[in-house]
């Protein structure tokens, strides 16, 4: 069943091409679509479109769909195209005329807008929790290893003394800044697009959009229906930008650990259960998890660019191009959440070799300190710089 069908059979190749991966991706959107549909049913009852009995049946049916989906027993067929059609088909087959009424006062356009908004809010809150867990792991590791000194580097050459505490603290601070970005994006998403229809509002019916906004947890409605369509790509790109920032920090973290765990450095030892072996070399313990975490930043960055470039140059109103923004968003969200979870586990179990770390604190690392001691004694900095520099000239 296609909601737009007018009796003409769609070419099967065209159907497969236009539907794409939506039946799979929309299984993730389905609980949020049902959540929004429940609020919509309550509102339709309030304005007299649904009777109390019809609203009660539809809400029960929608709750049943959520349970079936959670148990992997709800299927979105290719002929359905998306979760919206599959949901309406289920309700109509079960409740007849009442099921046919659920689409009153909305379009698939604002259905997916509100479902994606709810998905992003829900999943970003999970990212926020995982980021906080990573910060907590860094704090705990700092208490255990923070006082251990080791060489700080610039240009990949030894530069000045640093410490494990300073290194861990840098990622603690970075992820704390990411929490600010997550909160800002959550605030941006906090507006209800349901009721904007296909991008030009709903005629005839006086929808109570504030009611659905309140029930769905939004603090306000998205007033301009044209902007509601524009915002789909803008909000998705914003979420992806936040995820890219989180993955950027994890990329740096993973790169450092890959280096630190090299035998030539030996500063850190990754937990054995977090390393992999070689099919030919019996002695190998490879930091594959760090290497993949480093690489996955680029995957998420690619998803961000994909959405931003896809949404540019579209005229106002809905364009089918927007369908292709769902998969990059879901992929980036899953990568970021799993990466944060793994990163926290690594920090919890990593071991630092105090002897090898402190062995890296060779005399030249204190050259700047020597120069400043001369400056403190009255020598101009440039003279002190030259004098100490002569000492370490090789």
Total number of domains = 3
Helix content: 55-70%
Query: What is the overall number of helices?
Result: 14
Terminal Cα separation, in Å?
A: 79 Å
Secondary-structure blueprint:
Elements: H1 12-19, H2 22-46, H3 52-70, H4 83-95, H5 97-101, H6 108-145, E1 149-154, E2 157-163, H7 164-189, H8 209-216, H9 225-260, E3 268-269, H10 288-311, H11 326-349, E4 351-352, H12 354-359, H13 367-376, H14 381-391
Antiparallel strand pairs: 1-2, 3-4
Helix pairs in contact: 2-3, 2-6, 2-8, 3-4, 6-7, 6-9, 6-11, 7-9, 9-10, 9-11, 10-11, 13-14
Structure description:
The chain has 394 residues and is mainly α. The protein has three domains: 12-101, Fumarase/aspartase (N-terminal domain) (Fumarase C, Chain B, domain 1), CATH 1.10.275; 116-203 and 214-359, Fumarase C, Chain A, domain 2 (Up-down Bundle); 366-394, no CATH class. The chain is built from 14 helices and four strands. The protein has helices at 12-19, 22-46, 52-70, 83-95, 97-101, 108-145, 164-189, 209-216, 225-260, 288-311, 326-349, 354-359, 367-376, 381-391, and strands at 149-154, 157-163, 268-269, 351-352. The strands form two sheets. It has a two-stranded antiparallel sheet with strand order 1-2. The chain has a two-stranded antiparallel ribbon with strand order 3-4. Helix 2 (22-46) packs across helix 8 and helix 6 (108-145) runs parallel beside helix 11 (326-349). The chain starts with 11 loop residues before the first helix and ends with a helix. The model has no long low-confidence stretch (mean pLDDT 91).
């Amino acid at each position: 069943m296609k909601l737009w069908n007018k009796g003409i059979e769609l070419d099967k190749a065209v159907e497969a091409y236009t539907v794409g991966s939506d039946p799979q991706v929309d299984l993730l959107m389905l609980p949020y679509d049902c959540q929004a549909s429940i609020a919509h049913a309550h509102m339709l009852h309030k304005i007299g479109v649904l009777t109390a009995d019809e609203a009660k049946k539809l809400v029960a049916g929608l709750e049943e769909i959520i349970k079936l989906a959670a148990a992997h027993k709800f299927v979105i067929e290719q002929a359905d195209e998306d979760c919206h059609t599959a949901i309406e088909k289920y309700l109509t087959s079960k409740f007849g005329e009442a099921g046919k009424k659920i689409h009153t006062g909305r379009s698939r356009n604002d259905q997916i807008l509100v479902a994606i908004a709810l998905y992003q809010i829900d999943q970003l809150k999970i990212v926020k929790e995982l980021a906080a867990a990573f910060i907590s792991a860094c704090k705990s590791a700092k208490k255990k290893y923070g006082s251990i000194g080791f060489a700080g580097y610039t240009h990949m050459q030894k530069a000045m003394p640093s410490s494990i505490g300073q290194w861990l603290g840098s990622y603690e601070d970075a992820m704390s800044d990411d929490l600010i970005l997550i909160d800002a994006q959550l605030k941006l998403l906090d507006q209800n697009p349901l009721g904007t229809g296909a991008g030009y509002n709903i005629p005839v019916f006086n929808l109570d959009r504030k009611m659905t906004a309140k029930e769905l947890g939004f603090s306000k409605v998205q007033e301009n229906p044209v902007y509601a369509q524009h915002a789909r790509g803008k909000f998705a790109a914003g979420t992806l930008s936040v995820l890219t920032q989180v993955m950027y920090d994890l990329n740096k973290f993973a790169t450092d650990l890959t280096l630190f765990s090299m035998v030539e450095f030996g500063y850190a030892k990754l937990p054995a259960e977090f390393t992999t072996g070689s099919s030919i070399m019996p002695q190998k313990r490879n930091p594959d998890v760090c290497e993949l975490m480093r690489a996955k930043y680029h995957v998420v960055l690619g998803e961000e660019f994909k959405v931003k470039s896809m949404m540019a140059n579209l005229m106002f109103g809905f364009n089918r191009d927007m369908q292709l923004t769902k998969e990059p968003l879901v992929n980036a969200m899953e990568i970021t959440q799993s990466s944060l979870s793994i990163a926290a586990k690594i920090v919890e179990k990593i071991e630092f070799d105090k002897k090898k770390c402190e062995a890296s604190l060779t005399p030249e690392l204190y050259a700047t300190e020597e120069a400043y001691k001369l400056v403190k004694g009255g020598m101009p900095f440039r003279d002190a710089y030259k004098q100490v520099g002569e000492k370490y000239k090789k």
